[in-house]
Design goal:
By secondary structure, this protein is an alpha+beta fold. 33% of the residues lie in helices and 26% in strands. The chain has helices spanning 18-34, 56-59, 78-90, 92-98, and strands at residues 5-14, 39-44, 66-75, 111-116. 15% of the residues are buried.
């Protein structure tokens, strides 16, 4: 299997903004995929009653009325990610999406990083 690279995100989203966030994510997915990303996933937390580790709401420091999204975008490599993101940031659809609008989540509490895939197994 070829090397892969993933941009990963964990972010709190107010439940009142879910529809707005999902609309924004759907448009963003088209932009990233149009520029070559391999996969785009937005996953809304559903089961936070865990018995081990740190629950995502605690990690994301959610407030009352918020939920957590765990999201990722997959690329061929870090170099590929850098090329795709450079084009994405110049895409007018992204500019228009953000133009004069408040984001439907608190950008300052979003966790983000790039990850080299160490294990990848598909069914």
């Amino acid at each position: 299997m070829p090397a892969r690279y993933v941009d990963g995100f964990v972010l709190p989203v107010p439940k009142k903004n879910l529809a707005s966030y999902v609309r924004m994510a759907k448009l963003a997915s088209k932009v990233w995929l149009d520029h070559g990303a391999l996969r785009f996933r937005e996953c809304r937390g559903e089961d936070f009653k865990i018995q081990m580790g740190v629950p995502f709401p605690k990690l994301a420091k959610t407030k009352a009325g918020e939920t957590v999204f765990f999201s990722w975008i997959e690329y061929k490599s870090r170099k590929h990610r850098d090329r795709v993101n450079k084009m994405v940031m110049k895409d007018p659809r992204l500019e228009k999406m953000m133009e004069g609008k408040a984001m439907p989540f608190d950008v300052n509490r979003m966790a983000y990083a790039g990850f080299e895939v160490a294990v990848a197994v598909d069914a």
